[in-house]
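**Entry details**
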Amino acid sequence: MGMSMNVVVLSLFVSSLLLSVVTASDDGLVRIGLKKKKFDPNNRLASRLESEDRQALIASMQEKYGLHNNLGDHEDTDIVALKNYMDAQYYGEIGVGTPPQKFTVIFDTGSSNLWVPSSKCYFSVACYFHSKYKASESKTYKKNGKPASIQYGTGAISGFFSYDNVQVGNLIVEDQEFIETTKEPGLIFLAAKFDGILGLGFKEISVGKAVPVWYNMLKQGLIKEPVFSFWLNRNVGEEVGGEIVFGGVDPDHYKGKHTYVPVTQKGYWQFDMGDVLIGDKPTGMFLPMPRFCAGGCAAIADSGTSLLAGPTTVVTMINHAIGATGVVSQECKAVVQQYGQTIIDLLLAETQPQKICSQIGLCTFDGAHGVRSDPEVLYLFIGNGKSSGVQGNAMCPACEMAVVWMQNQLKQNQTQDVILNYVNQLCDRMPSPMGESAVECGSLSSMPTVSFTIGDKVFDLSPEEYILKVGEGPQAQCISGFTALDVPPPRGPLWILGDVFMGRYHTVFDFGKERVGFAEAA
């Protein structure tokens, strides 16, 4: 390769690449200094418009909770289809070809393919606003031609595979298979500040079985250790947006020691997570109900997601605690009005929670948990929290959420009137169809800490860390960093810990030992 084994640090920036300067340091790390730019409110508008047109996903919802991509021979491709990159904030620069053609990409631990726009992208407006790869200008290009397509939560990209060298920092990954996109429909890719995606997930979810860039770095002996780590700078007053360190960990990026948990299912960087605490109170996640983390939740550390996504039941409880306003769920209100007292009576009679909704006729019981009486209806919150699929009765999931909330209150010895009033309030806090829940910017001091139990440690997030502020002065808006995402078993339920969490906690992706580590970010 003509290149010594070393550690490469790839810097990231918020929302827009402004300047790139490669520097060397005494510690042997190579850093690419990047600037960052404030969040663009226009992206939020594009995200809202895009989220109103999600019916294209229905055709993809065929096998396994309906989420798969055209070349997805593996069954673990569902989370990629849920991803919404519009709110992603951290990007870095790579080069493709010889001489290198520069592209701004999201370094995404929640997917595994590399793709950039192709010069053959003629009919997608988005391609005309981003850098395009020109195979004819690269001395190391090799033709592949195999078709490729990836369905994301807010649109699909399609094109074909090619081979070329990829420059990451000062490393050259030779003969890397990647996707040249010829179709990038929708407003998301048009408004996005990034050109493409560089996936850092496991090969098991790679579309077309393409070997990921990270795997080729290891195979070609370009880095010291099979480890990479993320430091995301959440200080809006500083120029540097963050750094990725390939091949090691920079001790200046964290404080104390990392808490490591094993990867439980390769594909995503998935691990087991304990309870979620609001203040110091558990949310009662571990109830034997579908979608509600019976025995524990899975979680994914995902650098390609800006927010924290989790089961609607828990996100609604968090929204209630922080005063976030969403959209009133009529189904939820109807369940409380018609069946609230019955649910409480059944819980007091020690009826198994997972059987209650089937006993009152809103679900059927399949031997493990309740399912809809209408098997043709698929109930999912896709990407940014909007329910998608064939429209139909939502009473079954609304009932199951009410059971969880009521049982949680009964454990706290609340009266029945207090419980019914509380659950009605939770109905008012259901996340909005756009996935955003607004809060009063002046109320942050009164909001509780929200904590995640990972391994043997509790990881706290303060209101200043989980509330996103858009704009300045009297026009500023504050958005909850929590969004709803309901993934059915066997893959779900799960949490996706995005940049809100990874910004607070330095994250190590240990490929060699198949584990993920978290420590307080410096």
User: Anything to note?
Assistant: Residues 330-373+393-428 form a domain with the NK-Lysin fold (CATH 1.10.225). Residues 330-348 form the longest helix (19 residues). The chain has three domains: 38-52+78-225, 255-310+449-521, 330-373+393-428. The longest strand covers residues 155-168.
